[in-house]
Design brief:
The complex is a heterodimer.
Chain A lengths: L5 H8 L5 H13 L1 H19 L8 H11 L15 H32 L17 H10 L3 H4 L1 H41 L6 H5 L2
Helix pairs in contact in A: 1-3, 5-8
Chain B lengths: L6 H12 L3 H23 L2 H18 L9 H23 L5 H4 L11 H15 L3 H11 L5 H8 L3 H18 L1 H11 L1
Helix pairs in contact in B: 1-2, 2-3, 2-4, 3-4, 4-8, 7-9, 8-9
């Protein structure tokens, strides 16, 4: 008898051997009488266990009826949330995508504005001029004519600084909104997840 | 055990029970009670204790159902609870009455009034052999032979590696073979 094959014989008996190991063991069994006898004895042990009569227990229906009557109240606050759906996990992805989009728009706008203000783009970006006037500067130019900017360079500079300030404020507000949305989602996720910290093993072991 | 039931229907019952429906849990209990009580009986060899432990296991399962993961097997989870509860009781009994071992090691020979004296003796011998085995090996053997669990499932229920399941099963069957030598010889002759 090959002692090292004993666990494999048990696995073979229980139908737990597959593939190459199964074929190898079957090949070995066909040529080894000691192992065949060993397997036969293991089968007898298993058969003996299976054949052992069991006593009469309470019928399942009666057991269940009695059980239902004796079930204690359960604290429903411990009920963990169902696993989150795909849509739930798409929320942070959407927020990040929105952040990326807004950042890109602002960066491109900044770059184009800077290029236009320094004249790098020439006439190609005249359409950007519409966004380069604050309300007060537009009022001044409408009152005193469009040449006021050229005549009074400090007006143009103040206008440019004002435009830049508004632009930075816009960027900050958008980013704050994105961060707020993300933190809100994170808080909800944490609150939903918290009850799962109850370990099943602890519960099982009482 | 357990597998013949419609999985969708069972998932619905589990969800209802998770939300507090006692009758849904009762339906699940009536499905799994026979398997649970049989496994527990083979672990402890005591009819009354088996029923008590089955009751205890289902009560624990009810209380902890919210933490049950719907993707896992309810049957295996119930077995796990029942085996742990039973082993806890057996350990307490051993600690409390080591000198009074007969109080639990010798099983009730409840094989029914119609069973012959010889058969009763054989049953008693088998239960005695089972009870004399270390609980680690006994649990594996019982879950395999009476719970019909695969090695992987036993490993999951007992929280041990599959390799350990194999070695404990090997030990348990060899030990039983030694303890039941005469009985097995008789069985062999009956089969021959």
């Amino acid at each position: 008898m090959h002692e090292d094959l004993l666990p494999l014989l048990n696995a073979y008996l229980d139908g737990e051997l597959h593939g190459t190991r199964l074929r190898e063991l079957e090949l070995h069994l066909s040529g080894c009488e000691a192992c065949r006898n060993e397997l036969k004895e293991l089968r007898l042990v298993s058969a003996r266990l299976q054949a052992a009569p069991a006593p009469e227990f309470i019928p399942a229906g009666r057991f269940a009826s009695n059980l239902v009557l004796s079930l204690p109240r359960r604290n429903m606050r411990n009920l963990p949330a169902q696993p989150a759906s795909l849509a739930w996990w798409l929320v942070p992805a959407g927020i990040l995508a929105a952040w990326f989009f807004i950042q890109t728009v602002f960066t491109l706008t900044d770059a184009l504005t800077a290029a236009q203000m320094t004249g790098l783009l020439g006439q190609a970006a005249r359409w950007l001029n519409g966004g380069q006037e604050t309300i007060w500067f537009a009022a001044v130019t409408s009152l005193f004519g469009s040449q006021v900017g050229a005549a009074q360079p400090e007006f143009s500079l103040m206008n440019a600084l004002n435009v830049l300030g508004e632009h930075l404020l816009d960027g900050f507000l958008w980013q704050a909104l994105i961060v707020l949305l993300y933190w809100t989602w994170l808080s909800i996720w944490w609150l939903r997840r918290r009850p799962r910290f109850m370990k099943m093993e602890n519960a099982v072991n009482g | 055990m357990g597998s013949p039931h419609n999985a969708e229907d069972e998932n619905g019952l589990i969800e209802q029970a998770r939300l507090g429906d006692r009758y849904a849990f009762g339906e699940l209990a009536s499905r799994y009670y026979p398997g649970v009580v049989r496994v527990v009986y083979r672990l402890c060899g005591d009819t009354g204790l088996s029923e008590d432990m089955a009751q205890e296991a289902f009560l624990r399962a009810w209380l902890n159902l919210p933490s049950f993961r719907p993707q896992s097997s309810l049957r295996n989870w119930l077995y796990r609870i029942a085996v742990n509860a039973t082993l806890d009781v057996l350990r307490r009994r051993t600690d409390e009455s080591l000198e009074d071992e007969e109080a639990w090691v010798y099983p009730d020979q409840a094989a029914g009034p119609e069973t012959s004296l010889i058969e009763k003796e054989r049953v008693a011998l088998l239960q005695l052999a089972m009870c004399s085995m270390p609980e680690a090996a006994r649990s594996v053997l019982v879950l395999r032979e009476y719970g019909s669990l695969s090695y992987q499932e036993i490993a999951s229920v007992l929280d041990i590696p599959v390799g350990t399941v194999m070695s404990r099963l090997n030990y348990a069957r060899n030990r039983l073979r030694e303890l039941l030598k005469g009985d097995l010889l008789q069985l062999e002759n009956e089969y021959a």
